[in-house]
Amino acid sequence: MSLTCSAKDCRATAVWSLLWNNPKLHTADRRKTWLACDEHRGPLADFLTARQFLRAVEPVDPVAGPDDIGESDDGGS
Ligand SMILES: [Zn+2]
Q1: pLDDT for 48-77, tens place per residue?
Q2: Is this prediction's pTM over 0.85?
Q3: How many whole angstroms from 27 Cα to the centroid of ligand 1?
Q4: How far is the CA of 76 from the centre of ligand 1 (A)?
């Protein structure tokens, strides 16, 4: 399974997970995940940082993968 960068029109393999939270939309413990290739890690992180949404940047775990892409459930735990 290969994970693709979340940046618009980018098909590169993602190697970073950007974990973010919009306090206006999400509860405090909610984490949204954007995937980024090396090239887009900076721009995507800058975008989130400018809005004070960015919580963490972690290497992608290709085994576990992201578990909160898109608008799924609220992940109770
Ligand atoms: Zn990219």
Answers
A1: 999 999 999 999 976 655 555 554 445 444
A2: no
A3: 28
A4: 30
